[in-house]
Amino acid sequence: MKTKDHGWYFLCGLLALVSFCFVSCKDDNEEGEPPFDPSRPVAISDFTPKEGGLGSRLVLYGDNFGNDVSRVKVTIGGQNAKVVGVKNQSLHCYVPSKAYEGDIEVTILDEYGEELAFVEAEEKFTYKKKMLVTTFLGETYENNTKYDIKDGPFNDCGGVENMLWMVFDPFDHDYLYVCGGNKSHRVLNFKDERLETITFPSPVENKTLNVLSFSTKGELIAVRDVANTTEDAVFFYSRESGFKTQVNSFIARGCRSASAHPRNGEIYTSRYDLGVIGRYDPETKVHDVSKVKLPYSKCQIFTNIHPTGKYMYITLSDKHYIMRSDYDEAEKTFTTPYLVCGKYDTKDWVDGMGNNARLNTPRQGCFVKNPDYAGQEDEYDYYFCEIDNHCIRKLTPQGRVSTYAGRPNGSGTAGFNNGDLRLEARFNKPICIVYDDVRECFFVGDSNNHRIRKIAMED
């Protein structure tokens, strides 16, 4: 008896499902958009918005667009737009890059891709250039798992093994130096448009370097990763020798910094185990190891001095925290540091003011003059990489942190993608960043993508 009842219920359910599907199909057919009618012209009556840039969603209104995305081609300013939706009287697409001319054209295609109908909008779209993330150099293959290591022109130089820190030659802006840690150290030669390799003589040869920097005299500084107080760690190489001849060195255990004060040439170092900032006087050759004491020890400490020399940012990378230390002109040193943004030993991704912001492994940053701040006490914003948030953040002089590039639509997934700063661009553990005020762009060491990315206004 139970079996008979269950069979009856199953049969009723099956009949109901079939009836539902039949009605649904009938409704879809009645409400579906009509296909393109070759006996009628295609028309564009309007579009919105009237202006925008790469990635803007554009809606065209008109008639006889059909109902098949694969049969509709849209160009804006002569560039192919990605069509994402078509109804007979409207279609949706994304504005492509370099659509400068702004003319909008719609072509209806047959199954072989041949033109059936064509129409051009009477009004032009106003294309607005925007800042974009692109790939400046580097390439990988086999799903981003392999790359060649070689010198060569920017468009054929393989991938970049490792990138920990980048610095422009302050005396010749055609050379950008990339510290490769325990891998090869590279040079971007903009004059010849080549990626090259730089080597150092013993005792730096084949040793792990944490930072490359420059003195105010133009000497190249290499900072070795040394865990004792008996070996030199900071080495100076003369410009006259092509950075091949060592002219000075000093001991600096656990050092990850060699920042030169722009006005007097003092070199500021850091020490991991003690949590201190050291001061090296190039005139007296005295290195005061613990000139500035931090509240925390056993931290990866990186420093960046403001272009005016009035203060420096101290990044505690593995503690997700940035501090500030102001310069005391009378004492000729930096003072006790204080919080700028983040929360000690708390990693997250939160934009906001000061200790309300959350960071995740911040690393190298750079100061960039903001024309909107002209005449103010501090005219610079600070842009820095966040390794484990896979993005570039921006810090204002008032301490407000915002996300500048990466994490499209809030997604923190690592990846590789170019395009709009916040809608499309993805990074994979970006570590180092510099601003090129000659070319008006950023260069970013995107470590796990083995590429150097560029952030600039669209060409």
UniProtKB/TrEMBL annotation:
Residue ranges annotated for the IPT/TIG domain, each copy included: 44-109
Transmembrane segments: none
CDD domains: IPT_PCSR (cd00603)
Protein name per UniProt: IPT/TIG domain-containing protein
Source species: Bacteroides thetaiotaomicron
